[in-house]
Design a protein that fits this description.
The complex is a heterodimer of chains A (292) and B (528). By secondary structure, chain A is mostly helical. Chain A contains 14 helices and no strands. In chain B, the strands form five sheets. In chain B, strands 2-1-3-11 form a four-stranded mixed sheet. A four-stranded mixed sheet of chain B has the order 5-8-4-9. Chain B has a two-stranded antiparallel ribbon with strand order 6-7. Classes of the chains: A mainly alpha (292), B alpha/beta (528).
Chain lengths: 292, 528
């Protein structure tokens, strides 16, 4: 059948297109703006009137930003914690979710209650700090990855995901003589790719952006993270007025332009990773795994 | 069968969890600090004192200022101090103001803490060693004058720190070349524009306003006066004779203390500021600047004629102008534009070092501070190595072979910022650089400054009702200030001012003033 588009279709399509274009602009432009400003001389940016292109193109902001010698060490730590943290977080949360998703698990209710309580109530920073101290986690790399291994939000999502899987999957594997570990690793993990991708991305982003743990729980300079260094740089551009007169260096860098640069540096890697995970965010993974 | 399987799975899952929890405890301790934070690296030998070729004692030092420019113990100055004292510091700079309170609450303290915000909390024998005890025990020859002991004394009568950046009236008088620090207001103006206007004289506030108006007329695109958000008020307040310092209290004709907003000259000052705004000589956005760089950018990018900040602003702006190849220079306005001009220094210092109870080396710590407090130590920290970085002029002030205002050099050498015990005199002499505009401005400033440390002793204890009132009034003033100054008519400005006073009264300003007056009487007796 030939599709004849009438005026009404036209109208609807146009409206949808216009709306979507507006949405794209409103979401993408702030990113672009920050990106552009990070390449503009800070002293010039304050004059205002910048919307599309940098007026005074410069790499000073980045030069100043990366001039910190501790920078690459921090990058190593951050990459390590992101990869290890995301891996541990995903594996551990999935394992626990798989266990809890079994309807015949002993003490299931108790485990659930514990999870829900932990999800809604936290002791606050100080008790948390004391707990970390008594576990000897302070000032270690583990403090970045151990406390974040269980993500209660994703735990609940993963539990309902496993519950939605046909029970026949597990049962048929059982009949074939597979143990729980085999079922989990050989059957459940492969069918949960979209879930794993989502969790990996979110936990990874959380790890990448986290700075509170680096600031509060770590003193060792070699364990500082990227985001901590950014905060440090931004802080040090805010010397209060009552202290020493500061010769404005030859630089055109300002506190604000540094902040924007920090923003770009922190967002860029995540933006680069995302497209590669995109392909897992698709449905239909389950097709063909069960013969009804 | 199924049941057994499930059970065994549950058991397996649980044991995995347990194993992980146990493993969590065995995180490897990277780095040179033991696992416990705040405990200095253990050195085999803990005897400090002068260098005896022993391995230095390492102490952890937490600096409670997120902006602190020096983040490590390194550079020639640090090395020399270590050589003299046998103490090395592992420095951690805070990330925000909550970090130290968390450490205090969890009882996990480093050996030394350098702070301004938490002085009250740390002046407590459960958390820190009283200096008096340590001095009696380990350093009987460490002499601290009575005024310093008094202005740093805690409610229990002991003192747990001595704040730096403080000097007594006698010390100021005895050191004519010691000048106040950069915490004094100043205004710089562009000389090229002054010249274009025919070099009109600026000797009074009215002269200044006239020049600003001419700038406005001749250069409509420029901002006649741009102000640093932290330094908007002090300069003009001083010109109007509002004699209040940091405590925001003044002694009225009734011999009682009052909040500065009720000062008889305040309304006049606000009306004046409001007139500046209505004439378009200052801009409204100035009251919304989110940080203190924006005004500098206005000035450095050539968009402003006058730049209000501190006494060093002309020198700072000139340096920036020179570096970016601008064809003009800046010059300071006189510090006093009226016979009434007055500044009050009621400071009792900036920040102090605490020796915490977690410190395993109290003896080395107090001796370390004793060295910093010595004449030699103060000069080394503030000025650098004698003969190499400075020499004494016969007149009695140090002559530097570097620019003390050059932040990059100062930070890279480790100058100034290790002033964990220092005084305003060593710091003030650092400011005396003949020929600089900053020095000139500071000399003028010294002439009109009144030292009133007793006022500085009046500060409401944490969590007291008085502190709550004061905080509320401070917030009120901060918010209302813009309303008054940015009012569309003078009438509205006066009305907004009256509203502010009324609201402050409702908040309990009278109560706070009465409490301050009583405190004042007590402290004055102590000073006698």
């Amino acid at each position: 059948m030939l599709s004849r588009r009438n005026a009404e279709d036209w109208m609807v399509d146009s409206i949808i297109h216009v709306l979507l274009i507006l949405v794209i602009i409103t979401t993408a432009y702030p990113f672009y703006y920050v990106f552009m400003m990070s390449f503009n001389a800070g002293t010039d940016s304050t004059i205002g009137g910048l919307y599309l292109w940098p007026r005074v193109l410069t790499l000073d902001n980045y030069a100043k930003f990366f001039s910190d010698a501790n920078w690459f060490k921090a990058l190593e730590v951050t990459v390590a914690r992101t990869i290890i943290g995301a891996f541990l977080g995903v594996v551990f949360t999935l394992m626990m979710a798989y266990g809890l998703s079994a309807k015949d698990l002993v003490f299931r209710r108790l485990y659930f209650t514990l999870v829900i309580i932990a999800m809604y109530f936290s002791g606050g920073l100080i008790p948390y700090y004391v707990v970390l101290r008594s576990l000897h986690l302070l000032n270690t790399f583990s403090v970045y990855v151990i406390p974040t291994m269980l993500n209660t939000f994703f735990l609940l999502i993963a539990i309902s995901f496993f519950r939605d899987l046909p029970a026949e999957l597990r049962e048929s594997a059982h009949i074939d003589g597979a143990g729980e570990v085999t079922i989990f690793s050989r059957i459940m993990i492969p069918v949960s790719k979209p879930l794993i991708a989502t969790m990996g991305l979110f936990i990874g982003v959380g790890q990448w952006n986290s700075w509170v743990d680096s600031a509060y729980f770590v003193q060792n300079n070699d364990l500082r993270t990227l985001t901590y260094r950014m905060i440090e740089i931004i802080n040090s551009s805010k010397v209060p007025a009552n202290s020493v007169a500061y010769a404005a260096g030859a630089s055109t860098v300002t506190g604000y332009s540094l902040e924007l640069t920090a923003l770009v540096v922190s967002v860029a890697p995540i933006l680069c990773v995302y497209p590669f995970l995109q392909k897992y965010f698709v449905h239909g993974i389950m097709l063909g795994s069960v013969k009804e | 069968m199924r049941m057994a399987n499930t059970k065994s799975f549950a058991a397996a899952a649980l044991s995995v969890v347990l194993a992980l929890v146990l493993l969590a405890g065995c995180g490897t301790n990277a780095g040179n600090n033991g696992g416990e934070t705040g405990n200095a690296a253990k050195t085999g030998d803990g005897s400090a004192g002068a260098s005896t070729g022993k391995k230095p004692v390492e102490l952890s030092m937490f600096i409670d200022f997120p902006w602190y420019p020096v983040k490590e113990w390194k550079g020639p100055i640090a090395d020399m101090i270590t050589e003299k004292t046998g103490v090395k510091l592992n420095i951690t700079v805070s990330t925000d103001d909550n970090q130290l309170p968390v450490m205090i609450a969890s009882g996990n303290l480093p050996d030394l803490i350098f702070t301004a915000n938490q002085v009250d909390r740390l002046s407590n024998s459960n958390l820190s060693y009283p200096w008096d005890d340590l001095i009696n025990k380990y350093a009987p020859d460490f002499k601290i004058d009575p005024t310093r002991k008094l202005v740093n004394s805690a409610p229990d009568g002991k003192f747990y720190t001595v704040r730096n950046a403080f000097a007594t009236q006698e010390e100021w008088n005895a050191n004519p070349f010691a000048l106040g620090n950069d915490g004094n207001p100043g205004v710089a103006v562009r000389t090229d524009i002054l010249k274009a206007l025919g070099n009109p004289q600026i000797k009074t506030v009215d002269d200044f306003v006239n020049v600003l108006e001419k700038v406005k007329a001749k250069y409509p695109d420029m901002v006649p006066l741009i102000m640093d958000p932290n330094w908007m008020e002090q300069y003009f307040k001083a010109q109007f004779g509002v004699d209040v310092g940091g405590t925001e209290l003044y002694e009225g004709d009734d011999n009682k203390l009052h909040m500065f907003i009720t000062h008889p000259k305040m309304l006049e000052y606000y009306k004046f500021m409001n007139s500046l705004y209505r004439k378009g000589l200052i801009i409204g956005e100035n009251f919304a600047f989110s940080n203190d760089q924006i005004d500098d950018d206005y000035a450095n990018s050539g968009k402003a004629f006058a730049h209000m900040h501190t006494v060093s602003i002309a020198d700072t702006d000139n340096l920036a102008a020179k570096k970016s190849g601008k064809p003009y220079t800046w010059q300071m306005l006189p510090t006093a534009l009226s016979p009434d001009a007055v500044l009050v220094n009621d400071g009792i210092g900036f920040a102090g070092t605490f020796i915490t109870k977690s410190n395993k080396h109290p003896e080395e710590s107090i001796k370390f501070l004793q060295y910093l407090a010595s004449d030699e130590g103060k000069k080394l920290v503030m000025w650098g190595v004698e003969g190499k970085q400075w020499h004494m002029d016969p007149k009695g002030y140090p002559v530097f072979n570097y620019n003390p205002n050059d932040g990059d050099y100062v930070n890279s050498q480790g100058l100034k910022w290790y002033y964990f015990y220092s005084d305003a005199i060593a710091e003030g002499l650092r400011a005396y650089v003949p020929g600089t505009q900053t020095t000139e401005a500071l000399l003028e400033t010294k002439k009109i400054t009144k030292i009133r440390p007793v006022l500085g002793l009046i500060h409401a204890p944490a969590d007291s009702e008085e502190q709550t009132i004061k905080t509320k009034i401070d917030d009120l003033v901060k918010n209302q200030r813009a309303k008054i100054i940015l009012a569309k008519t003078e009438q509205e400005a006066v009305q907004a001012y009256q509203d502010m006073i009324n609201t402050a009264q409702q908040y309990g300003m009278g109560k706070y003033e009465q409490w301050a007056t009583e405190q004042y009487a007590q402290k004055k007796d102590l000073m006698k």
